[in-house]
User: Fold CxC2-like cysteine cluster KDZ transposase-associated domain-containing protein from Choanephora cucurbitarum.
Amino acid sequence: MEHDDYTAPEISNHVQSWIEYAEKVRQWYFNSFLLHGEPDLSKKSVHFEPYDCSCNYRGVVRMTLYFLNGIPTIQEVEVMHCSCNPLVKQLLENHMMPNKTKSPRRAVYFALLDYLHVFKMRGLPSLSSRTALMTNDVLNSIYFLYRKLVRYAQDHVNSSYGLESMSVCLGCEGGKRKLVSMDGNFQMKRRKTAGRNEASEGGFFALSIGEQALCGTKEEVDKFATVKKDQNDNCFLDPVEDSVFKANDENSRNNSTGRYDENGIFSLSWARHGVPERMLNIYDGEGHMLKQQKEEGVRYGIMYHIICLVRENLEHTFTHLMMNDTWYGVTAIHAYAHTMACQVNYNP
Assistant:
């Protein structure tokens, strides 16, 4: 959600250089697979082939390269570069993601970054023990740039072959009942300086096609801006009404400091496999998320940790939920905070 009192900072030279190099970087990324195939996670070094050219200027740079090979591994290597064979080109075409486009000194192997991404997204463990040889600055900055590059390249492939970005679960699509899970965090804080308007950066740093399809627009968010919860909701959650489970109370937000930019995010996901379908940057309105669901003939199963608060409101607003025998459930980990009656009625 945009804030009127916030002015996005100017784009830094570092970011601007990636935007300027975007198309070349993408092509060098594609070349790496044509030249060397898929990255090998067991690899622990890269050999840069010597070359001859007629460039007037040649330089040699000492690089620190990071691999995994069972345990984090470092290679110190000198790389020759010139105008026709720039350093960034050589690194990317050898499956190495540099930390900068201009005068990089560190690079991380693609396979290590892919491994960390899968490990982080699926296992959600701490990565500190596996990246002890890399400082947070190296890992976080290069990982962020690499994921931007991968999505930028994927968009190009999808556009070239006419492929559409899907926000459905292929394992559940077309089933007799659509099982969805809803959840929100309405007190997400970040430093205001982190709120750069990425749309103005364009290209390499712009939202990918998949991200744009997943995230709600400002126009959608504005529809919910003045929505208030129904005070007559049939709620069994009285004992914990003032606890941390009071997720839909917009008055719980604390805007006492000007140092932070507070956001709220609400998501609708396919429940069985956790595939996200829709996300909104919004402060409240979880009881109205299904306004985005146009399939009135679909039979739903809705899981939400305070479904007892919003069920009556949902069925009043969307009568087809009552008519189509909708299932309701409270997530197991939250059920213990509810009363016994609620646990019986909404046992997942």
